[in-house]
Amino acid sequence: MTASTQWQLARAAAEKYQTVLTPVILGPFAEALVDFAHLQPGETAVDVGCGTGAAARRAAGLVGETGQVAGVDVNASMIEVAQSLPAVPGATIAWHVANAAQLPQADQSVDAVLCAQVLQFMPEKQPALADMQRVVKPSGRVAFSLWMPIEDNPYFFALVDAVARHVGAETAVGLRAAFAFSNQDDIYAVLQMAGFDQIEIEIRQIELPMPELTQFVPRHIGATPMGVGYNQAATAVQHAVVNDVCEKMARFGANGRMQIPFRSHMILCKKGN
Ligand SMILES: C[S@@+](CC[C@H](N)C(=O)[O-])C[C@H]1O[C@@H](n2cnc3c(N)ncnc32)[C@H](O)[C@@H]1O
């Protein structure tokens, strides 16, 4: 797998992730995952593959000052951006640059592992899942979000289709990777193989208010691994991509006042025996 499909974004890209993607799409879904995990005051939570920390910050407010929260990401730039953001009320968040397969937490020390839109980027999932099992308490839980197939996410589908047709399929791969682990049967099988118990999979649709797409689409592309190929394309090609997406999304409302449905799996598991 290439570096781009592993979403290894440099610092500038991590900042774009935080300023462009988090407020509009990834943040609301990360927060929905935290709520799905039903965190309680005083609990300990770890946000694995935390990126710039949207889930960790939500968790900090819910577990409060008596709780503990950590954010772990293999990409040091993501952690740098997370650390640069203003502190939120609640638990102090400890940030760590580490691989999900080698979490810095002690055995059986965590009430809730949160893992928002991350597993799809791991070529080898079992080592990371085994380490989540190691750190979670016997009574604990692990919550994952994973996008529904791209065909069930009309904005992403239109974007990838437009980039593939006008710029090239190899450039579109950078976003397609986010949908590499979207089949419910596969998700269930992988989690079962990892030894998780009581695996509950729910489909969550959130209607997200979108900024004006003529401006947002280029910013969104620039905040993903597709940005390199897109920026090298001719201006007419870039316009064609934006126009295609705007046309396909027109059914969701006037530009600037659009509400587009996004769909993700929300998965809650118990530690296995
Ligand atoms: C799409 S981002 C999601 C970030 C964040 N959870 C959110 O919802 O905004 C995927 C994140 O997973 C991280 N990641 C991918 N593989 C990882 C691994 N093996 N260990 C730790 N983090 C990983 C990436 O660095 C990236 O920050």
What distance separates the N and C termini? 33 Å
Provide the spatial order of strands within the biggest beta sheet.
Answer: 3-2-1-4-5-7-6
Overall mean confidence score, pLDDT: 94
**For this structure, what is the CATH homologous superfamily of the domain at 11-149 and 179-209 and 262-270?**
Vaccinia Virus protein VP39
Give the cofactors and ligands: S-adenosylmethionine
Shape: globular
CATH class term of the domain at 11-149 and 179-209 and 262-270: Alpha Beta
Which stretches are poorly predicted, pLDDT < 50 over at least 5 residues?
3-9
Q: Strand percentage, roughly? A: 15-25%
Could you tell me the CATH topology label of the domain at 11-149 and 179-209 and 262-270.
Rossmann fold
CATH architecture assignment name of the domain at 11-149 and 179-209 and 262-270: 3-Layer(aba) Sandwich
Strand count, sense and closure of the main sheet? 7 strands, mixed
How many helix segments? 10
Assign the structural class, choosing from mainly alpha, mainly beta, alpha/beta, alpha+beta, or little secondary structure: alpha/beta
